[in-house]
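[AMINO ACID CHAIN]
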Amino acid sequence: MNENYTNEMVQFRRQIHKRPEEGWTEFETMNIVVKRLRELGFKVEMGTKAINPKFVMGRDPELVAKAMQRAKEHGVSQEFLDETEGYTGCVGIWETGRPGPVTMFRHDMDCVIVQETDDPKHESNVGHYCSERDGLMHACGHDAHTSVGLGVAHWIVDHKDELCGTIKLLFQPAEEGTRGGLPMSESGLLDDVNYIVCCHIGTNCQLGEIGICRKGFLATAKIDLSFTGKPAHAGSDPEKGRSALLAACNVATTLAGIPRNGQGDTRISIGKLNAGEGRNVVPVHAKMQVEVRGQTEPVNQYMVDYVERITKGIAEAYDVQYTFEKVGAATTLETSDEVSDTLEAIAKDIPFIKRIVPSDGISGSEDCTWLIRKVLSHGGKGGFFIFGCNQHGHHKGDFEIQDEQSLPEAFEMLTRFLQAKNHA
């Protein structure tokens, strides 16, 4: 492998790592991506050409506005921000001018809401590229995914005379919370795609390992619940109040007891609960963040229906109002044997890949599943692989990836896939 590609990817990864951005706010990151793609000669689709607003979930306009201002203060031009139409996410398109398939690779861009460790031995502190933004960190490797995409873009230009068909590089916002995949899948930019390959760093693979996922992941729904009661003095006339806090607490404990489902695995997490105004006031407001998962779409919907039914019943019992909002979703993974077999053969042929790891049983969720489903729906083919790193657990402040060694794994997998399917 050419060291220049590795050095370039590492530089981009560390630049992005220093400025992590949560879902739907990745304006600085996207500016880096679009600028580089255009330098290389790619056509870039962005804004509502890349994101279908009708399918957007979990996007806070106030948070987006603040992010755009922050990006502007850090050197992003107003012209670029206007071009985004307030939506992060873009697709770089390379037309070879020769007949051939349309191939798409997906790369997500957002970070995790977690504080990066200050351990001086951690790789980002050793390398002086730790997060500059408190409470935010690339603790899931999306900075690596984005950087690999830019490395592949450079390789495409360098090998343009050897390729055929069309190549699309999709840079997705808001994978955390499973919010960005569906609106990009419904943008129209996937309607002509023949092959789509998605990937992720880490999970069950160590450095030098590749996992081929032929099936797996859990369908999921992210749900925001809010409760509104009635205020009253907690001492003099508590009977006049209606406690949103107690209603929310009862919902939380009851949700934890949803019966398991014999048709497949289920998960539920009550991740956040904020409630109340003061010690001596019957609590008027409560907000809760919940997620459910299921081994299949019907099993996941079983969980969603149960959450809504419990919430409605307890709200009525406590005489409070409630709202139920789905703010994210992903489906299960379906792939094509042709693509999976090709990826496995490629991995076996890369000298520094020492092991192929069985990876069909991963129980997390991934919203690239919407992108793959869209391609499969019109007769295209898709696949998913994992490239390894030695990490201590995703979504943790000490997550690390050994970028100089791990990024070439994905780079080789993707560029060799292009050579296999798009070689002139």
